[in-house]
Amino acid sequence: MTPASAKRFRLRLRFKRARDSFWLAPRTPQGRPDLKYSLEPAAKKLEELLGNPVAFALDCVGPGAEGQSKALRDGEVLVLENVRFHPEEEKNDEAFSKQLAALCDGVFICDAFGSAHRAHASVVGITRFVKQAAAGLLMEKELAYLGKAVTNPVRPSLPFLAAPRSATKSKSSKTS
Length: 176
Prior knowledge:
- By secondary structure, the chain is of the alpha/beta class.
- The chain has a single domain (3-144), classed as Rossmann fold (3-Layer(aba) Sandwich), CATH 3.40.50.1260.
- 33% of the residues lie in helices and 11% in strands.
- It has helices at 3-14, 40-50, 63-70, 87-90, 94-101, 137-151, and strands at residues 20-22, 54-57, 77-80, 107-110, 132-135.
- Strands 1-3-2 form a three-stranded parallel beta sheet, sandwiched between helices.
- α3 links the parallel β2 (54-57) and β3 (77-80).
């Protein structure tokens, strides 16, 4: 949980009718629960940064998570467990996407620039089942910075392409 993320939540919570349920997908635990990838510590950190109570759901879908999400009052925040604990997330499963969409009041905001390129249920699938989907403030900031770097780069410049695995690098970036 970053200070920038906390700033976004503080901004949202200033609005009297704002309620936030959110999830993160920090790492891929191979589609099964792995406590070292749990988001419970992130919920505690967000609570510390906000100075307000933050609830935590033991799952990101299902009756428990949906009940906690629907019970949120204005100004409250709920952190949902890691979506990647479910193999359906990376498969962009339609039923899983609908379960995620059931957690909101029809508005979905994606603020995850680092995973926005993935065709996963929590990024793409959910957008088919909500009334309104939009990019968040952090996403907007990243896109503006990227746009400026592409359209008006500081000269001299050196392009740099990085990926955690060679399989994720584009074929055009490989040299013979």
